[in-house]
TrEMBL record:
RCC repeats lie at residues 124-176, 177-228, 229-280, 282-336. InterPro entries: HECT_dom, Hect_E3_ubiquitin_ligase, RCC1-like_dom, RCC1/BLIP-II, Reg_chr_condens, Ub-ligase/GTPase-reg. Keywords: Repeat, Transferase, Ubl conjugation pathway. GO terms for molecular function: ubiquitin protein ligase activity. It comes from the Eukaryota. This is HECT domain-containing protein. The active site is at residue 963. One of its GO terms (cellular component) is cytoplasm. Residues 673-992 form the HECT domain.
Length: 995
């Protein structure tokens, strides 16, 4: 039974005999009803006489060949939707005709504005047609009015639950409550905070997180209903349709305060009035224009606050199912008993319904059970329908616990990853089903993805598909689909790619690790299949780029959620040095070119390389710098001729006196051309022209021993004198720090480990990573502990500590906030205090001297190559480590001349060596190599050579050439003699220094 109020003071019975009548949303000139279980449509046209009075024309009935389940009316037209998902248009002459240009798509919803229409298809695509004078078609600027439906691509992939239209504006609502509006906005009816028309869908950010479930549009105003029953209105306030007890326009959504607490369950907007239905109390409230009696309040006056509609007494034993508002009229549909529930379901079939079924474990179980039966074709159709639709994938696997999916944002995807993983784990149990899914995704879904879809929800597909790739990799499938998904990600508009990066950065570490693993596994699989040199095809380039974007996202993620950088490393992939040399040259050649314009260059992604590859890159780059290609030609587009012989490389000479080592070194460095620092280093001592680079390790060993002691005056030391740091107030000239930087760079550049007793902060700053409180804990545990105590101290009591923003450093008290002397530490700023404190110690206080050091260091080493290393890796490369594996040293030893592993003197030597204390063994390593630490790659990097010391007797001591790890061992008559001579040599004769 329908009740309507149209040019009447209060509701009247519209039709008592039209059981099954279903009024649509009603506009200015057309009222339409679905009757006779969808086989008839009754249409009435509201006309206007010469005096401007409006009256309802005769009700006309249109027979329908198809069952109609929903319709919507415009100013002079109506759009009908059949049970089969086909659309029919009713023109001014009440003639029905099918709507073309939909490519047999099934339609789930239709909506009409005054002169335009919208539809939503089952695969989630929105189409619009009609007038476009105010951008109401959402197709962009310059698009003309068009009577043929055109796809609204910017909403592609968003799982929509509702489309709706007003006078000349339109809205779409997503499954997670995101609201998008477009069209006329002269009164703020789009809720965007301004009065500028929009020709493309724009997100109504003010409604984010409000859990919107329904939208209704009037002529120039809009109403929104949330899941909690709260109503927001915005747009034109003329006549009071916003319900704010005001006639003022509202440019942003505003709560209708008079409806708060009533639990509104439906809303409907007419031209200038609004209805709100409160389901629990079965009451309708109206507000806005009442000139034609459309408010149903018994009078023809406007009202700017919601008041109850005066419903007839007959409705007391009936249930209101749905409310409708048109131009200047309103309807309520009521019924009795079982009929009520059936019709209510019918009416809501086109509003608030997800456009397609979601993928879940239950439907996957069904596919698995049917895949070997005759009904498998039906399952294949379902797989095609669901996995070819981005909106279906984006609307599946939602985190509905506590309505979390309504919190969707760039930092919250709205996905429940346990559901994603569970679904694809099940799919993997049946290869036939998984193969079907793989084919649909690769050949149908990926080509259909739109690169500029708005909203975060459209990007969920890129977070879901890696789980499919992961199960495929477990079954050792080809990487074609992985490369295709990577290409689809990279086709995204840069702005959307940035949003996807934000989504990645918010992932839990466990999920982020799995995402990284997908792309790594595909890439390493390709690289390991290459027996000689990796390829540079497009697929590899795409995989590299995606990993690059993931790496950047990981770096910008919340600190507590960041996965270790080592997660990205492909430890199992060892790059051929010939390939690396070519890659470095390409990197240098294309350094200023955008990555999209270049071939795949691995040096752009150092986080993927293992430590051995990084060291190789550093050494090859240094070798190319020391000995630049001489007239080498580029062949083809980017290949180099690597077989032309280059001229001998020039060297950088230091001629030093042992007695004045530091002074000589600093003087010669200060007068040298900086460009010569990148040459191979050769050291001469005391005019000894016989020996050249054999002195190099001894030079670095003794120079750094002398520089890095408190007596040098260059550095400050911690309480235990074990770690050094740069002083806030240096006692030596700043130039010395520049030269010290040059020396550190030369040591690294020439593959010499040196004694650098600095905290990790030193190495972090060299690779442009900000030091932290943990780094201060390494240098000054007591000070760091005090700062941690402040952070952990109860907020309520921090103020009682009576601390200020100051630091005692280097015997000087420094104000950390110069703008506010004596600023107190409070619970609100205690983290700021700690961060500022640490920043002062490691950055601000040493800014001048460390800048000089960096300048010198990078005069030798290329900054971009040094930054390949993680801080702990750089420390290991420069300083070495202390994991001594003496058995490996023995196994890797090479014997020369008359010596061999079974020679009696060699057998005795190893017996003596095994009896040495750990400190004596370290002293032997220093004696042999010029360093008492192990290279970061392990003892395997040291290959000791042992040969007979010529013309020697039992009185001679063993000798060593540190640059070659060469031990010259005399033949001794007894174990005791060998022991004593070795201990004496190790203790008092380090290489050539103390001859």
């Amino acid at each position: 039974m329908s009740y309507g109020w149209l040019r009447s003071y209060k509701p009247i019975i519209e039709s008592e005999t039209s059981a099954g009548a279903s009024p649509s949303r009603i506009c200015n000139s057309v009222v339409a009803f679905i009757r006779n279980n969808g086989r008839l449509v009754s249409v009435a046209r509201i006309q206007e006489d010469q005096d401007g009075r409006r009256f309802t024309g005769k009700l006309k009935t249109v027979k329908c060949k198809e069952t109609i389940r929903a319709l919507s009316c415009g100013d002079s037209h109506a759009v009908l939707l059949s049970e089969e998902g086909r659309v029919l248009c009713l023109d001014k002459a009440n003639i029905l005709s099918p709507l073309g240009n939909l490519c047999n798509r099934q339609v789930t919803q239709v909506a009409c504005g005054d002169q335009h229409s919208i539809l939503l298809t089952q695969d989630g695509q929105v189409f619009t047609w009609g007038q476009n004078t105010s951008g109401q078609l959402g197709l962009g600027w310059g698009e003309p009015s068009d009577m043929s439906p055109k796809p609204l691509k910017s909403l592609s992939g968003i799982p929509l639950v509702q489309i709706t239209a007003g006078g000349e504006h339109s809205f779409a609502l997503s499954l997670s409550g995101a609201v998008f509006g477009w069209g006329k906005n002269t009164a703020g009816q789009l809720g965007l905070g301004d009065t500028t028309n929009r020709c493309d869908p724009a997100p109504v950010d003010c409604l984010n997180l409000k859990k919107t479930v329904l939208i209704s549009c009037g002529g120039e105003h809009t109403a929104v209903l949330t899941k909690g029953g709260v109503v927001f209105t915005f747009g034109s306030g003329r006549y009071g349709p916003l319900g704010h007890n005001s006639l003022r326009d509202e440019l942003r959504p505003r709560v209708v305060g008079h409806l708060c607490g009533l639990k509104v369950t439906q809303i409907a907007c007419g031209r200038h009035h609004t209805l709100a239905f409160v389901g629990p109390s079965n009451k309708i409230y109206s507000f806005g224009r009442g000139e034609q009696g459309q408010l149903g309040n018994g009078v023809k006056i406007d009202q700017s606050v919601p008041l109850p509609v005066q419903l007839p007494d007959q409705i007391d034993d009936q249930k209101i199912e749905h409310i409708f508002a048109g131009g200047n009229h309103s309807f309520a549909l009521c019924s009795l008993g079982q009929e009520s529930e059936e019709r209510a379901n019918n009416l809501r079939s086109s509003v608030g319904k997800v456009t397609q079924q979601a993928i879940d474990e239950e439907i996957i179980d069904k596919w698995i059970s049917e895949c070997d039966s005759k009904s498998w074709k039906k399952g294949q159709k379902e797989i095609t329908k669901m996995f070819s639709s981005a909106s279906c994938l984006n609307g599946s696997f939602l985190d509905k616990s506590c309505d979390k999916h309504y919190q969707t944002s760039p930092k919250q995807s709205g996905l429940d990853y346990s559901l994603v993983q569970g679904a694809f784990r099940k799919l993997a149990k049946k290869g036939k089903v998984l193969t079907e899914v793989e084919a649909v995704v690769q050949h149908t879904l990926l080509p259909s993805l739109y690169e500029e879809s708005i909203g975060v929800e459209s990007l969920r597909v890129y977070l879901v598909l890696p789980e499919l790739l992961r199960v495929l990799h477990k079954q050792h499938r080809r990487t074609d689909l992985t490369e295709a998904v990577a290409a689809a990600i990279l086709r995204l508009h840069p702005n959307k790619l940035q949003v996807l990066g934000d989504c990645w950065s918010s992932l839990k570490p466990s999920v982020m690790t799995k995402h990284i693993g997908v792309w790594k596994k595909a890439l390493s699989g390709i690289l390991r299949s290459e027996h000689i040199l990796p390829t540079r095809d497009t697929g590899i380039k795409h995989l590299l780029q995606v990993l690059g974007h993931l790496h950047r996202a990981n770096q910008t993620s919340v600190e507590t959620q960041t996965v270790p950088d080592s997660t990205f490393c492909m430890e199992e992939v060892h790059f051929n040095p010939i390939f690396l040399e070519e890659d470095i040259k390409l990197w240098r050649l294309w350094s200023k070119q955008d990555v999209d314009q270049t071939p795949a260059i691995f040096c752009r992604y150092p986080f993927l390389m293992n430590l051995q590859s990084k060291i190789n890159v550093f050494n090859i780059n240094a070798a190319l710098t020391k000995n630049p290609p001489n007239n080498r030609q580029r062949t083809g587009m980017w290949l180099f001729d690597m077989f032309l012989v280059a001229a001998p490389a020039p060297v950088f000479e230091l001629r030093l006196n042992r007695a004045s080592l530091i002074e000589d070194t600093f003087h010669q460095l200060s007068v040298a051309y900086h460009s010569t620092f990148k040459r191979s280093l050769v050291v001469y001592f005391d005019e000894d022209a016989k020996l050249t680079d054999v002195y190099k390790r001894d030079f670095f060993l003794h120079l750094f021993d002398k520089l890095l002691v408190p007596e040098s005056g260059m550095f400050m030391y911690n309480d235990t004198n074990t770690l050094a740091w740069f002083p806030a107030m240096p006692r030596v000239e700043e130039k010395r720090y520049f030269l010290f930087g040059v020396l550190c760079g030369m040591a690294l550049y020439n593959n010499n480990m040196v004694h650098l007793p600095f905290p990790m902060a030193f190495f972090k700053k060299l690779v442009n990573i900000k030091p932290s409180l943990e780094d201060l804990r390494e240098f000054s545990p007591i000070e760091a502990g005090s700062l941690q105590y402040i952070l952990d101290y109860p907020d309520d009591d921090v103020e009682n500590m009576d601390m200020t923003f100051s630091v005692m450093w280097g015997d000087v008290v420094v104000e950390l906030d110069p703008k506010e002397t004596g600023k107190l530490v409070t619970s609100a700023n205690k983290k700021e205090f700690v961060d500022t404190y640490v920043n002062y110690i490691f950055n601000q206080s040493v800014e001048v001297v460390f800048k000089e050091f960096r300048k010198g260091f990078f005069k030798v080493c290329d900054k971009d190559v040094v930054e390949f290393f993680q801080p702990e890796e750089l420390r290991g490369v420069m300083v070495g480590k202390e994991n001594f594996d003496w058995e490996t040293l023995k196994q890797n030893t090479v014997y020369e001349g008359e010596y061999h592993a079974g020679h009696p003197n060699i057998v005795t030597f190893w017996e003596v060596f095994e009896e040495l204390t750990e400190d004596q063994k370290k002293a032997f390593l220093l004696f042999l190599t010029g360093c008492d630490r192990v290279p970061i790659l392990g003892m395997n990097q040291i290959r000791m050579r042992v040969q007979t010391l010529l013309n020697s007797s039992q009185q001679h001591f063993p000798e060593a050439l540190t640059c070659h790890s060469l031990l010259q061992l005399p033949i001794y008559p007894s174990k005791e003699t060998l022991h004593s001579r070795l201990i004496e040599a190790v203790g008092h004769n380090r290489g050539f220094w103390n001859e």
